[in-house]
Structures are given as structure tokens and as C-alpha cells.
């Protein structure tokens, strides 16, 4: 006989807490979407509502008024995120794996060299000189990728994860004639999928939301990222609003300017694509919770 499992008070309380946390995260996002599709005059009169009182797409029309630049920024941002995340995971995993092998005699010194940047930072000026004067990467797409190519924290996380992989698997591969590179790509990396997915998600979000690097090293409009472009758009709206009383014509034009809706529309455009990664990587997070419990 199938018996229904009883839900205890503690488990019920835990479910209610997680439901509440989900609502706290989802409700503001739904409100932002609703505001972005609300007429600006209705926002001033009726305030914020989840369902627009007066539906309007003027905010998105304003944001896409320079559609070519927005689409170009999307292409640049997607390219930087995909290439940057892939290269970051490759370099991080290879460096972390080498630090776990006993054959690398200088692994302790290299680990110390990796750990030092966690405590100390060289500063913005030396880094700017490195990227512009020595590597000559200014106004290139590679500066957007290489600026965050290696993270000492992620290297240490991957290093600890590789230690959980049974050494007998690697020794068996060596007996079968597999080299280090083949062993790494065919055995170690497939077993490290949960860790790579977790780190890759956070790295992809960091690349996607990065606008500071573009503001420092990029002057060519064709290489502007989406976040930098939207930040410039918000600055332009603020500038027009602050100078609205200087000219009556500007004040009249601002009457139709969807300033508040445009802010919300930029939020939707900025988080829309990257938020799709969470459902795709959910199963890897769940597997990562238990994979470390496997003993040699």
C-alpha cells in the first residue's frame, strides 16, 4: 500500500520560508516589467502597478531609438560573455589541476603566488598601464575578456574540488596509456561539471554586468557593451531632466520622455538573457551538493 508521506511542522516551515524568499525575489522583477510597459503620464498619476493602467511601449521605443547601437552592444556583450567564460574556465581548471598533481614540484610556490592576489591588489593605475602600454589592448575586444580571465578565488575552489576526485581513476588512465592532457579533458573535466557550471554561472554574470572595463579601455562605439550603453542612456536621461528648466523646448520634449519607464526597460533588457542560465544549470547545482560526499 502506498502511504502518503506526512509533512512535519519543521519541513512545512522550511517550505514556507523558501516560498517567501522566492516571492521576495520574483515580485520586484514582475513590478519592474509592469512599469516598463506603463505610460509615463499614468506612472506620474497612478503610481506603480504590476498590471499597467495605461499600456505603452514608449520606453522600449526610446531605448531602441538607436536600435543599431543596442543590437551591436548585445552582440559584443554576448561574445565577451561566451568567450570570456569559456577561457576563464579553461585557464582556471588547468591551473587548479596542475596544483593538485604531485609531479609539479613547484606547486606550493605557485599556490602561494595564486593566493597573494586574494589579499593584495596592485591597483587600477598599474593595471591600466599593463593593458594599454605593455599589452596594447586598448579599444580591442580582448581587453574586455582578458581583464577578468583569471580569478584566484576560483582557482582555489577548483583546486579543492579536484582533490575529491579519486586518484585511482587518474592512475588507471595512465596505465592504459593516456597522457596528462587526454586524462584531463576526458576524465577530470567531465567529473567536474557541477563545479564548472557553478563557477561558470558567476563568471558569466560578472562578464555580462561589467561596464567599468568598457568605460576605462574602450572608446570605439562599435565595441561598447550593453551595460555601458544602458548606463550612458541613463546618464543622458538624468542630464536632460536636470536641465529641463533651462529651455522651454527641452521641457516640452521631456513631457513625452519616458524617463521612469526607460529605466525599468533597461533593467529588463539587461537581466533578460542572463537570467535564462539559472534554469539550465539548476541540475548541476543539485548534483554539486552531493558529489563531494563520494569517498575514495
TrEMBL record:
InterPro entries in UniProt: MetI-like, MetI-like_sf
Q: Classify the protein's membrane topology as the record does.
A: Multi-pass membrane protein
Task: Tell me yes or no: is Cell membrane among this UniProt entry's keywords.
Answer: yes
Q: Where does the ABC transmembrane type-1 domain start and stop, copy by copy?
A: 74-281
Q: Which UniProt keywords apply?
A: Cell membrane, Membrane, Transmembrane, Transmembrane helix, Transport
Q: Which Pfam families match?
A: BPD_transp_1
Query: Could you list the residue ranges forming a coiled coil in this record?
Result: none
For this protein, the parts annotated as crossing the membrane are 12-37, 71-98, 110-129, 141-162, 183-208, 262-281
PROSITE patterns assigned to the protein according to its UniProt record, in alphabetical order:
ABC_TM1 (PS50928)
Principal subcellular localisation of the protein: membrane
Q: Where in the cell is it found?
A: Cell membrane
Assigned protein family: Belongs to the binding-protein-dependent transport system permease family.
Spell out the protein name for this chain: Sugar ABC transporter permease
Amino acid at each position: 500500500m502506498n502511504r502518503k508521506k506526512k509533512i512535519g511542522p519543521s519541513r512545512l516551515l522550511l517550505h514556507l520560508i523558501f516560498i517567501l524568499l522566492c516571492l521576495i525575489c520574483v515580485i520586484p522583477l514582475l513590478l519592474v516589467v509592469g512599469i516598463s510597459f506603463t505610460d509615463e503620464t499614468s506612472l506620474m498619476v497612478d503610481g506603480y502597478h504590476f498590471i499597467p493602467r495605461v499600456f505603452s511601449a514608449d520606453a522600449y521605443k526610446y531605448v531602441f531609438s538607436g536600435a543599431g547601437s543596442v543590437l551591436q552592444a548585445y552582440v559584443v556583450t554576448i561574445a565577451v560573455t561566451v568567450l570570456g567564460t569559456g577561457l576563464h574556465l579553461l585557464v582556471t581548471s588547468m591551473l587548479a589541476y596542475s596544483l593538485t598533481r604531485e609531479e609539479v614540484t613547484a606547486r606550493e610556490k605557485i599556490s602561494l603566488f595564486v593566493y597573494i592576489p586574494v589579499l593584495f591588489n596592485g591597483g587600477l593605475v598599474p593595471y591600466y598601464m599593463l593593458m594599454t602600454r605593455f599589452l596594447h589592448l586598448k579599444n580591442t575586444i580582448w581587453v574586455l575578456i582578458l581583464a577578468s580571465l583569471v580569478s584566484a578565488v576560483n582557482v582555489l575552489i577548483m583546486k579543492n574540488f579536484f582533490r575529491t576526485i579519486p586518484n585511482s581513476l587518474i592512475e588507471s588512465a595512465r596505465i592504459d596509456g593516456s597522457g596528462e592532457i587526454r586524462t584531463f579533458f576526458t576524465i577530470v573535466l567531465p567529473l567536474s561539471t557541477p563545479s564548472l557550471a557553478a563557477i561558470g554561472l558567476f563568471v558569466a554574470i560578472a562578464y555580462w554586468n561589467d561596464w567599468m572595463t568598457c568605460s576605462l579601455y574602450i572608446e570605439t562605439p562599435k565595441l561598447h557593451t550593453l551595460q555601458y550603453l544602458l548606463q550612458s542612456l541613463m546618464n543622458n536621461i538624468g542630464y536632460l531632466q536636470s536641465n529641463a528648466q533651462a529651455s522651454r523646448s527641452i521641457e516640452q520634449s521631456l513631457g513625452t520622455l519616458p524617463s521612469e519607464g526607460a529605466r525599468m526597460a533597461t533593467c529588463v533588457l539587461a537581466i533578460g538573457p542572463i537570467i535564462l542560465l539559472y534554469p539550465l544549470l539548476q541540475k548541476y547545482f543539485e548534483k554539486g551538493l552531493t558529489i563531494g560526499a563520494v569517498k575514495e
